[in-house]
Amino acid sequence: MAEFAHTTPFISNPVKTRDDLGAFLRGLLDPLASHTSAGGARVHLGFTATHYDDTAAQLEGFSRPIWGLASLLAGGGEYEGVKRWLAGFANGTDPKHEEFWGNMRNKDQRMVECSAIGFAIAVAKEKLWDPLDKEAKGHFEDWLGGMNDKEMPNTNWLWFRVFANLGLSRAGSPRFDAKRMKADLDHLDTFYIGDGWSRDGPEGVVQLDYYSSSFAIQFAQLVYSKLQQNEDPERCEEYRNRARRFAADFVHYFDEEGRGIPFGRSLTYRFAMSSFWGALAFADVELPSPLTWGVVKGLQLRNVRYWAKQPGAYYPDGTLTIGFNYPNMNMTENYNSPGSPYWCCKSFITLALPRTHPFWTAEEQPYPSVLKNTITPLYHPLHITTNLGGHTYLLSSGQQCSYPVKQSAAKYGKLAYSSAFGYSVPVGNGTLEELGGDNTLALSDDNGETWKCRRDTREARIEDGKWLRSMWYPWADVEVETWLVPPQETAPLWHLRIHRIKTGRQLKSAEGGFAIYGQREDGRALEPHEGEGFGIFEGSGEGRAVSSAGVSGIVDIIPAGRMAQVIRTDANSNLIVSRAVLPTLLSGHSSGPRSLWLVTGVFALPSQGDGKGAPAGWEGEWRKRPVVPEKLVSLINLQ
Fold first, then answer.
1. Domain DUF2264: where (predicted)?
2. How far is CA 607 from CA 371, 391, 614, in A?
């Protein structure tokens, strides 16, 4: 019974070869047939709502799998179900048909779905455009070209119109607007900030998440550089150069098992996180050291392989759930329909490559050894990434969403994000159990009735390449300055957090470490235990939790009277495990003119993929304690 309900329809697929990847894609496409409308234009996968209409949501279910389908067909593959999409193109764009998608309006969700459709025509015209009759082509051109005179959000969305025009151009359509496409590209290039990185918007936007890489901007730049290298050679070469520089940073967001570090919004797109690596291959980019085609192949396929084996990512029929490692509506944005997760199909772009491409002929290589046990400051996203001590995570300051997004404080404002432990989102606005306050300093001015966490970070910077420093202001008379110090060679499983609080009101604080799977081997909840076995330990100034997922702990390095408690967070708050516990330090703080200092050590070591808990010897590492850098000791002593 051990594997009952803990498997996926794809568990037997090793996802190692081009044929394996194609089989995985077909396994995702096949179940959509029973959810597809009679006319083929709509895919209905569930009843949860979005801020946009149901027709757009069902168009989303239709269009997003096309990222994979078009790549498969472009690479010479076949798929019998392609007829469903051909019928959908004809009927969805026909104003007289009952399944008509509707004409586009300003800032319409339909614009997003045009990106996959434009890509499909651009790379697989013979299979996805040519079979349509003249009337259907006319309707299709009119519908797709209908976005050229509409207002679009000043974000990565502009790439979707570029892709629509690429498709129209490849089809030889009079609705292709070369002037509009060039204007969009010129404006998108103003988002570029150097070293390969682009903001997801104009100056003042400080989001540099997966939209700046695999979800949208870098992916789009690479595809454009391949498709338009003859028509726009200078821009295409610039995009390839950006990708080379970006790859040197982006590799630090992945661990040896292939997992990406969860950070930011839209994480229900799952293995779209790794589609940048496939796009590098699609664009034939000359790789920067230490990357080779074998390394890139490993980065891409290990990530896809990981997701092929996550039971909670799929319903029993093989369709994708909304969530991350399991169905989870708490983490979603109001633009996540049941079809949204199929954005992951971008990661099938390597199927467009011939078998002779070096991506496919190279032997898959492990994560580069030269990048193991490193600490890397990334100045544009204001992250410090590390995999020192066998744990891949990032420290973060300085990002926030530029518009209202559900749970944005959790998605951008936490102090650390981990590939193994993920992050948590609030499921309510009351108790600490509801808060899911992992890797954050939560403050309350109403005796714990409600809590505020860092959301709007100010004055953030990386100092001397050594640590992050930032400010945030939860109330008008409260300011918090935070230093985040990465691991030290003498204590590699720890990182330090130092907070200076100035407050004009009485506060309670709750500082959380990494949330961790909270069950025993028999599936029951962890119980108090002080030894090496699975369980929780709470005491004065330190607490920890040990389970099959590893160990997580937190310590008051300079005693400030904080008590440790291992909080059982509400179910479905953590993105990776649905039942989690959270080592937390709790205290009260009086108002006054003097600064309050909190110095926290955070310890974490995940299981090494075997589900047997932290490796032997972790208690010796636990007894080591990180040292506060002398420069920061001086600041504390001065104040």
1. 17-367, 374-632
2. 20, 9, 5
In sequence order, the 6+-apart residues with CB closer than 8 A to the CB of 172 are none
The CATH number of 18-367 is 1.50.10.10
Q: CA 428: distance to chain centroid?
A: 23
Per-residue pLDDT at 529: 82
Angle at 485 between CA 483 and CA 489, to 5 degrees: 165
The answer to whether 479 and 456 are in contact (CB under 8 A) is no
DSSP 398: S
CB 334 within 8 A of CB 59: no
The owner of tokens 């009119």 is 142
Place of tokens 């396994």: 27
User: Where along the chain do its domains lie?
Assistant: 18-367, 373-638
Task: Copy the structure tokens of residue 135.
Answer: 């009337």
Task: Return all residues near 606 (Cβ < 8 A) that are at least 6 apart.
Answer: 390, 391, 418, 420, 421, 549, 550, 614
Q: Give the pLDDT confidence score for residue 386 in this predicted structure.
A: 98
Q: For residue 599, give the amino acid letter.
A: V
- What are the residues whose beta carbons fall under 8 Å from the beta carbon of 124, sequence distance 6 or more? 69, 70, 71, 73, 74
Residue with tokens 């001065």: 638
Question: What token pair was written down for 15?
Answer: 């996802």
Q: How many CB atoms lie within 10 A of CB 586?
A: 18
At residue 446, the pLDDT reads 94
pLDDT of residue 2: 43
CA dihedral 585, 589, 593, 599 (to 10 degrees): -10
What one-letter code names the amino acid at 436?
A: G
Q: What is the pLDDT at residue 638?
A: 65
Q: Are 114 and 168 in contact (CB under 8 A)?
A: no
3-class DSSP state of 399: coil
112-142 burial code (b ≥16 CB/10 A, e <16): bbbbbbbbbbbbbbebbbeebeeebbebbbe
Q: Residue 594: what pLDDT?
A: 87
**Burial class of residue 623 in the structure, from the number of CB atoms within 10 Å of its CB (0-12 exposed, 13-18 middle, 19+ buried):** exposed
* pTM to 2 decimal places: 0.96
Q: Give the C-alpha separation, 337 to 268, whole Å.
A: 10
Could you tell me which CATH class the domain 373-638 is placed in? Answer: mainly beta
Q: Count Cα atoms within 13 angstroms, Cβ side, for 115.
A: 25
Model confidence pLDDT, tens digit, residues 186-223: 999 999 999 999 999 999 888 899 999 999 999 999 99
Q: What would the two tokens of residue 152 be? A: 């679009």
Residues of the chain with pLDDT under 50: 1-2
What residues contact 440, with CB distance under 8 A and at least 6 apart?
Answer: 409, 410, 413, 414, 415, 453, 454, 511, 512
| CB environment 34-61: b (16+ within 10 A), e (fewer) | ebbbebbbbbbbeeeebebeebbbbbbb
Position 404 scores a pLDDT of 84
